[in-house]
């Protein structure tokens, strides 16, 4: 999940540069299209097949994931970036709520307490780092941003379910890319499309890397949720804020306040604590065979 967060942060850098020439739906479409081609090559290279015995699970995962992605882009457009990112990163809190809620039904919630704390600790670090704000006229966008986090949580849990039924990561990522490309193409029908003659080559050069980085990030994230402890993985995803803050500082000259550095330290600490708690709970667990 940490590697996935790194790839997603790099992808965000590419989107920030490419957005000078492309609209949101254009970037969503190109991201999905490049990822489709890249993942098809990966599947072929591994001698695997795109045929799936659980097509409806892929439809659900792709549908929920794309709606979450679209909601996040809407929030980014209508809210301060820090607020939109914080609301989306609430996915870890939603995952914890879903898991603990399910554990309560089976009388096993006490076993999840320490890991639940690490998720909440990580989210606290996100708030310290980003310091989100919202005005009274942004409430609707705030609700949409909140729903983007919930949708991301549902999508991640669907990824876990796909892993449990034996679906390979590359197939899951491929079908999500198909959904992303379709939604991007649909959005382009109702919005202005940038003529390629007006696109700067420096911005166009990011189109392929964005799709490849998205694929690599999705592959790592899918593997993490498919084979790892869900709450540990949810804690680790906050590493994306750390990478994004570093890129923002070094590439765009943004400043990180002392409170932001404290938040980064809390995020890193929550990930380390989650790993330690998981290792203590399962000290003799053999490595998985893949």
Describe what is shown at a glance.
With 290 residues, the protein is mostly helical. It has 13 helices and no strands. The chain has one domain (2-281).
Topology of helices and strands:
Blueprint: H1 2-18, H2 24-45, H3 55-78, H4 81-88, H5 91-105, H6 113-130, H7 139-164, H8 169-189, H9 201-204, H10 207-227, H11 230-236, H12 239-251, H13 258-281
Helix pairs in contact: 1-10, 1-12, 2-8, 2-10, 3-4, 3-7, 3-8, 4-6, 4-7, 5-6, 5-7, 5-11, 6-11, 6-13, 7-10, 8-10, 11-13
Instruction: Compute the number of structural domains.
Output: 1
Oligomer: single chain
Number of helices: 13
- Fraction of residues in β-strands: under 5%
The profile of the biggest β sheet is: none
Give the mean pLDDT: 83
Measured distance between first and last alpha carbons: 18 Å
Tell me the structural class.
mainly alpha
- The rounded Rg comes to 19 Å
Number of strands: 0
The percent of residues in helical segments reads over 70%
So what's the overall shape? globular
**Unreliable stretches covering 5 or more consecutive residues:** 283-290
Characterise the protein shown here:
This protein is mostly helical. The protein has one domain. The chain has 13 helices and no strands. The chain has helices at 2-18, 24-45, 55-78, 81-88, 91-105, 113-130, 139-164, 169-189, 201-204, 207-227, 230-236, 239-251, 258-281. Helix 3 (55-78) packs antiparallel against helix 4 and helix 3 packs antiparallel against helix 7. The radius of gyration is 19 Å and the shape is globular. The two termini are 18 Å apart.
């Amino acid at each position: 999940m940490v590697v996935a967060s790194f790839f997603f942060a790099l992808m965000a850098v590419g989107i920030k540069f490419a957005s000078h020439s492309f609209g949101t739906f254009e970037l969503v479409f190109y991201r999905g299209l490049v990822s489709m081609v890249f993942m098809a090559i990966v599947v072929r290279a591994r001698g695997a097949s795109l045929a799936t015995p659980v097509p409806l699970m892929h439809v659900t995962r792709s549908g929920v994931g794309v709606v979450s992605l679209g909601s996040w882009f809407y929030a980014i457009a209508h809210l301060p970036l820090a607020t939109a990112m914080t609301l989306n990163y609430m996915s870890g809190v939603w995952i914890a709520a879903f898991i603990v809620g399910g554990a309560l039904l089976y009388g096993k919630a006490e076993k999840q307490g320490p890991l639940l704390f690490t998720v909440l600790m990580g989210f606290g670090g996100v708030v310290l780092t980003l310091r989100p704000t919202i005005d009274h006229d942004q409430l609707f966008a705030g609700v949409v941003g909140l729903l983007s986090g919930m949708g991301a949580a549902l999508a991640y849990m669907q990824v876990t379910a796909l892993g449990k039924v034996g679906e390979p990561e590359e197939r899951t990522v491929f079908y999500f890319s198909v959904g992303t490309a379709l939604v991007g193409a649909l959005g382009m029908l109702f919005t202005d499309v940038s003529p390629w003659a007006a696109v700067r080559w420096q911005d166009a050069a990011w189109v392929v890397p964005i799709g490849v980085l998205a694929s690599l990030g999705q592959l790592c994230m899918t593997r993490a949720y498919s084979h790892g402890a869900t709450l540990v993985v949810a804690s680790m995803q906050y590493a994306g804020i750390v990478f994004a803050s570093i890129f923002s500082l070094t590439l765009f000259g943004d400043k990180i306040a002392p409170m932001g550095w404290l938040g980064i330290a809390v995020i890193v600490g929550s990930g380390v604590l989650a790993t330690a708690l998981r290792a203590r709970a399962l000290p003799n667990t053999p490595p998985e065979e893949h």
